[in-house]
Amino acid sequence: MSKRAVLEVIALDVEDAVAAQAGGADRLELVTDMAADGLTPPAGTFAGIRGAVDIALRVMLRLADGFDAGDVSRVVRAARELREAGAQEFVLGFLDADGGVDLGAVERVVAELGGCRWTFHRAIDHATDRDALRKQLADLPGLDTYLTAGSASGVDTGLPTLLAEAQRRGEPGYEQRLLVGGGLTLHHVPTLRTAGIDAFHIGGAARPDGWQHPVSTEAVAEWRRAVDGEAGQDRL
């Protein structure tokens, strides 16, 4: 475990971003409106956060709750505005009415990204066929990560799937990094690290007092120690 694991923290604003970086986050996922499970933030919010921290930022491309792309042209415009503001990494994921990947929508948005790196988010946990989805997306430019709990219900239920997919790393459709998030707790970390999973995503866990309060530097630091496999994990 000598390789440093990635710790990604959800940030809503500059205060969150500064606290997360101080706690040891490697990367931020930038969203707005967590009541809708995280939507695209304004370009101005991105610019403010970009000016406040120097770690990687991945910006959500999602305009409404759920996994339907809706008006794809609006998503494309949002991506263009964010790129013009300096964004270089993104998060997206769209499903069709049958639970398959909406490949047309994903391809249209990815074309606007011009090769930027991006994460396919937890839409994969709601797909009818995870394996088929991975293989359909395998050759899209820039895709380097899947944010997943292994199950729509969270990591407790999805852990066997996560461990099985970790064993397939390098196979066609499985070259991308697993970024585990969604009901993730400190207790899960040692098992996931032993399986070779080296990327972790937290939102509410970085806010012990709830989503109405900012990110806690201390909470992020505790996760930093856990994913690095350091001592002091008495709460695991």
Question: Which tags fit this structure?
Answer:
236 residues; alpha/beta; 8-stranded parallel beta sheet; 8 helices; disordered C terminus
Structure overview:
The chain has 236 residues and is α/β, with parallel strands linked by helices. The chain is 35% helix and 16% strand. It has an 8-stranded parallel β-sheet with strand order 7-6-5-4-3-2-1-8, covered by helices on one side. The chain starts with 5 loop residues before the first strand and ends in a 9-residue tail after the last helix. It has helices at 14-23, 43-52, 72-84, 103-113, 130-137, 155-167, 189-194, 217-227; strands at 6-11, 27-30, 56-60, 89-92, 117-120, 143-148, 177-180, 199-202. The chain has one domain: Copper homeostasis (CutC) domain (TIM Barrel, Alpha-Beta Barrel). It contains 8 helices and 8 strands; from the N terminus they run βαβαβαβαβαβαβαβα.
Which helices and strands appear, and what pairs or packs with what?
Layout: E1 6-11, H1 14-23, E2 27-30, H2 43-52, E3 56-60, H3 72-84, E4 89-92, H4 103-113, E5 117-120, H5 130-137, E6 143-148, H6 155-167, E7 177-180, H7 189-194, E8 199-202, H8 217-227
Parallel strand pairs: 1-2, 1-8, 2-3, 3-4, 4-5, 5-6, 6-7
Helix pairs in contact: 1-8, 3-4
- Assign the CATH superfamily: Copper homeostasis (CutC) domain
Number of domains as seen in the coordinates: 1
Please give the radius of gyration in angstroms: 17 Å
| Biggest beta sheet summary | 8 strands, parallel
Annotated CATH topology: TIM Barrel
Distance between the amino and carboxyl termini? 18 Å
The count of DSSP E runs of length 2 or more, i.e. the number of strands, is 8
The share of residues in helices is: 25-40%
In what range is the share of β-strand residues?
Answer: 15-25%
Mean pLDDT: 95
What's the arrangement of strands in the largest beta sheet? 7-6-5-4-3-2-1-8
The top-level CATH class is Alpha Beta
Low-confidence stretches: 231-236
Specify the structural class: alpha/beta
Order of helices and strands: EHEHEHEHEHEHEHEH
Q: In CATH terms, what is the architecture?
A: Alpha-Beta Barrel
| Contiguous helical run count | 8
3D shape: globular
